[in-house]
Structure formats: structure tokens, C-alpha cells
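cache lookup: miss for this entity combination. No prior model stored, computing from scratch. Input as submitted by user K.M.:
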Amino acid sequence: MVSIRIPTPLRGHVGGASSVELAGGTVGEVLRELAQRHEKLRGRLFNEQGELNRFVNVFLNDEDIRFLQGLDTKLKDGDGVKLVPAIAGGSAGKVYDQGAGR
Amino acid sequence: MSFVRALTCKECGTAYPVVPRMICDECFGPVEVSYDYAAMRGVVTRERIESGPRSLWRYRDLLPIEGEPRAGLRSGFTPLVRAERLGRELGVRELYLKDDSANYPTFSYKDRVVAVALTRAMEFGFDTVGCASTGNLAHAVAAHAAAAGLKAVVFIPHDLEAGKVVATLVFGPRLVKIRGNYDDVNRLCTEVADEYGWAIVNVNLRPYYTEGAKTHGFEIAEQLGWRLPKHTVVPVAGGTILPKVWKAYRELVELGLVADDSAHIHAAQAKGCNPVARAIESGADQFQPQKPNTIAKSIAIGNPADGPYAIRVVRDSGGFAASATDAEILDAIERLARTEGIFTEPAGGTTLACAIKLIESGRIPRDETICVSITGNGLKTIEVQEGRLPEVPVIEARLEAFAAIVGPPEAAAPPQEAEAR
């Protein structure tokens, strides 16, 4: 089992819990399991292509999974996974999309 | 009165009331302050701004506060220096330095963002403010909090320059060093903001905090005689100031205070931490986070919160990016000192070094107006110069002893020009 720490803005979607215990072989597996169990969370964690929302940073034992193997990063019993809002990280904003292409 | 309309998600456009909030509940995107520009038109004029205080608060109509300014009353309105000697050396016609190394009271551009964030924090009723910092923000939060009578909790990486630690501690904040780099500090602070009821200025007050960075851009335009430089070179750390300089320029155009002369914004980063410059150079929309390794610690952020917006602004404005090695950064610090009498920290050295590269590669034409943002002061990072400056002779207080070093009066060479680099 691994524990997944849920940030405040997402707790409403998991019944108020600050962390959730799940089993799975990779970071992607446990996050997809989490999204499976909590329908409302799915659209906030993953986009339509099943990729991680760019505004959610995922840490495994305090290391950003982008420095590991991303969603394919292997888990072992007792690992801690953290979901942390990227604050403003991720991709470019729609504000500027309208002006792009010049 | 205030022209603030709402907090608006930069991604999906959802509007929220003006409260401490950093992200959108719907999509997790960042929220930004939006204003009623229609109401400003004809009211916010050059005359109104020029009759305001000689501080960043002369632009208060374009800042997200409700009442009177309550922090940083003398911050901002730093010199815009026409760099004649450096410009001649580089063969450019019109070179300016926006010199926030002279900002008050903590000698970096961070006085701007903290002035706005702490005024807002007090309006919201917070009694404790904090930040995740690479040093300059720590210094600014601690100083402004002391002056405002607020409690401060400041988080920094464990290996910052001694000057920044001392300059922060002297104000009496609770200072915590984190084993790790800035990105580790920032992640912890995001969790702290989530759990404790404090105003972490660059986390849960981030929409207000970042707006303060616009004043750097407003001042450049006003001090140039209400016009935009054709090229502005801005350092990228968390990616806050670069998009806000652009926003400042766009707002001035929107209000008819400057002509739209299509300003280009260029990004400067250290080679040892250049996720944004890399993305721009390779044409990618998203940056790959990095583990920083550079002497430019104040801009060593491998996972920049506003990096994506820095990338987009550079691209939309027709700018470009460059990266500077540690050696180039140090050379630029000394070159700036010897030509213009300004001592900046490695962040400023990075920006100048990158500006030089962009000029030499032709990305910035030599006959167009160029402004380089100098965002911090070298007195806080004296360690980096170690071993680079000459040994200083110690002599007896006798004329013969002096003559033994420099030669007789008629033969003595002027001390500096000879070794101009």
C-alpha cells in the first residue's frame, strides 16, 4: 500500500480525506485507481488523453516524478505520493492563445 | 477606490471574488487579477500618475489594493540609467538599465511585489506573512513585515549567500533553512500555505504579489518619456517579472498612455538553470524541469511556477532567450561595474550577459532601444567575486611606499582604464 496526500482544493472530491491509501505498482496505476473511485477527481487529475493535468505536480517521497519515470515510476510498499498544485506551473494560458501565431 | 474586478482563471476564465486564492477550483490553473479598464480610461492619465508619489504607488490605480498603501511606501521608482559607456562598448545606440539594485529598502525588485502583497495581506486581516525564497524575497518580506508590525515566517534553501541570510535575520523573522533547492522549498511552502493560516506571499497571495512586478515595467515606460523600449531583457527565475513587464506594457497601451511600438521581451537565464530559455530556443510550449547548478542562486529555480507564461510572452512579443555560463555572468557583473558604476548580483550579471549575447547574435539590432533589467544588488552576494578581484596591497603610510607600487607621479598609470575588459 502507498499513501496519497490530497491537497485542500481536492479534498472535497474524496470525501474530505487528507490522504488516501491505495495499492498499485506504479504512480500512474494508483492515480488512475484514485480517479476511478472518485469520479469528480478524474477530470481534475487527467485530461481527455489520459495525461496528467499540467497544473498538478506529483511527488514520490518528495521527488518530482518528472525527474523519475513519470507516471511509470515504480512504487514499493510504504511509499508516499503527494499531489501538489503547480501554483502556476504547466502550459501556456488561453489569455495569450488568442494573440499567438504572429 | 479600486478598479479591481475579480480574480480570473488564466486557463478557463472562471471568475472568483477577490480573496486569498491562487488556483482555480475547476481546472487548477492559476488565477490572475483582472481590472475594469473601461472605467480607467480617461481617469488614469499620465498627469494623474506623474502627480503621484515618487514610489511604485504612483501606479496604484493599476495595482490590486482596496484602500491606502500600507507597505513599501518608498519602494520603487528606481533609476532608469542611460548606459552611455557600456552602450558604446557594445556598439549599441540606445541602452538603458532599469536599476532595481537601488530599490528601497532591500535593494532588489522584490520590494515591489512585497509592497503590494503585504498591503493586501493587511487588508485581508493576516497577522503573519511568509515566503519561499532564494534570498531577495526573504530579505524583502522580513524587512517590510518588520516595518508593518507583522510576523514573518521565511523559508530558504540551506546554502544561500551569507549576506542574504544576515540581511534577513536582522529583522527578526522566523527563518527556516530547508535541505534542498528552491523547488523543494517551494513545494514545502505550498503545503504550509495549505495547512497553516498564513499569507505566504508567493503562494496563496500570489495573484496580488505578482501584480507588483508590473511597476518595474510601468517605470521603464514613464522614465523613457512615456514610450516602450523596443527590447527589454528580463531575467527568469520563477517567471514572475517577465510576463508582468509585458502586462504593464499592454496596460499602458490599452489606456492610451504609450503608443504601441511592438515591444519585444527577451528572457535571460543562467546556463546551469535554464528550463525556460531551453524551451524557447527549441520551440517547445512546455519546459522540462531542471536541477539547478549555477552561482546565480537568486534565479536558480528549476521548476518555475510562471515559466509557461514567460515562454508564451517571449514568443508572442517576438522576443528570444539566451543563457549565460557562470564565467560569463561574472564577467558581466564586472563589466557593468567598470563601465556604469553599478554593482549587481549574479542575476543582474546573467541578464546583462544574455543581453550581450542577443545583441551579438543579431536578435537585438544595435540601432534599436534596449532596456536591461537589473534586479538585484551585488553587495548581497560578494562571495561570488572571490578570487576574481586583484589582491589589495597593504603599505605603510609613506609616499615612498606608494611610489614603490605605482612608480613616480610622472610615470604612474591610471589604475583602471588599463585593465578594462
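stored under new cache key. The beta strands of chain A are 2-5, 19-22, 56-60, 63-64, 80-85.
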